[in-house]
Design goal:
GO terms for molecular function: purine nucleosidase activity; uridine nucleosidase activity. With about 300 residues, this protein is α/β, with parallel strands linked by helices. It has twelve helices and ten strands. Strand 2, helix 2 and strand 3 form a beta-alpha-beta unit.
């Protein structure tokens, strides 16, 4: 039984690895890839998604460009992590496959309308602007969503962009608030989990040892952005945040978390975009998300390497 997914993304090297993991996994049917401004501006995210599809030999996957800025705030990007292209680390050819004419938000709405209720999983790997815009424009589609499995937020690890906020949520907190309050089942893959899935030299060399263009690209990307996290956190490697979303779909047993209430701060400039996760259940607020905290890093990298080997 294949699971139908839409990947909403802002590639970014770790987004690229997540896309590759999905395309290398026969259990998942990627209905389309929708792009949003985030790690780099929209023109680059929609180009990078196509570069990754071509790298995987999957020119059949449809890529759509979506929202080029957050709902209410100016766009914040992260070239300081991902390089000026978003995929710095290895030179890759310009994509030749076409970007779809349809807007990503229209694709999300049309696809969810046409599928049976509860059969499509949304996998947002970047700011939640596209998803929130689709839900605002066509609230009836929310009932069609099987799950929203998103990379974003933090509680124990607090913020990586401000002292309080993780990048994806901080870029568009108003969109995040809409998604967290939508009523569909939400799974949150926060920094608390992803920071436990660090690259190591043997893990990166295992990608390179695949001896394929995909293996070489993933090894080079991880080499590139690893330097930023190692300098920032003093860690031995860098977290591969976004592939954890796809890994959770494939192997939820690799992760541990709690079903709790998560609210998004949208008023205070000091804590804007904070994911206020009621981990200790000290409020009476209704739980609205499965919030992950732990991942079996060895199991995650074994799965990732095995699936990348298929491409």
């Amino acid at each position: 039984m294949t699971r139908k997914i839409i990947i909403d993304t802002d590639p970014g090297q770790d987004d690229a690895v997540a896309i590759l993991l999905a395309l290398g996994s026969p259990e998942l049917e990627v209905l389309g890839i929708t792009c949003v401004a985030g790690n780099v501006p929209l023109a680059l995210t929609s180009k990078n998604a196509r570069i990754v599809c071509e790298l995987a030999g999957r020119r059949d996957v449809k890529v759509f460009a979506g929202c080029d800025r957050p709902l209410l705030r100016p766009l914040v990007t992260a070239e300081y992590v991902h390089g000026k292209t978003g995929l710095d680390g290895i030179p890759l050819p310009e994509p030749t496959m076409a970007l779809q004419d349809q807007h990503a938000v229209d694709f999300i709405i049309e696809t969810l309308r046409s599928e049976a209720p509860g059969t499509v999983t949304l996998c947002p790997l970047g700011p939640l602007t596209n998803i929130a815009t689709a839900f605002r424009r066509a609230p009836e589609i929310i009932s069609k969503v099987e799950q929203i499995v998103l990379m974003g937020g933090a509680y124990f690890e607090v913020g990586n962009t401000t002292p309080a906020a993780e990048f994806n949520i901080y870029v568009d907190p108003q969109a995040a608030e809409i998604v967290f309050k939508c009523g569909a089942p939400v799974v949150v893959v926060p920094l608390d989990a992803t920071h436990k899935a660090l690259t190591t030299r043997p893990r990166i060399e295992a990608f390179r040892a695949l001896g394929t263009p995909v293996g070489a690209a993933v090894a080079s990307w991880t080499d590139f952005f690893e330097r930023f996290d190692m300098a920032k956190y003093g860690s031995e490697g860098a977290p591969l945040h976004d592939p954890c979303v796809i890994a959770w779909l494939l192997r939820p047993d690799l992760f541990e978390g709690r079903f709790i209430n998560v609210e998004i701060e949208t008023h205070s400039e000091l804590t804007m975009g904070m994911t206020v996760a009621d981990w200790w259940r000290v409020t009476k607020r209704e739980p609205n998300a499965l919030f992950l905290r732990d991942v079996d890093a060895d199991g995650f990298y074994t799965l990732l390497t095995e699936r990348l080997a298929r491409l």
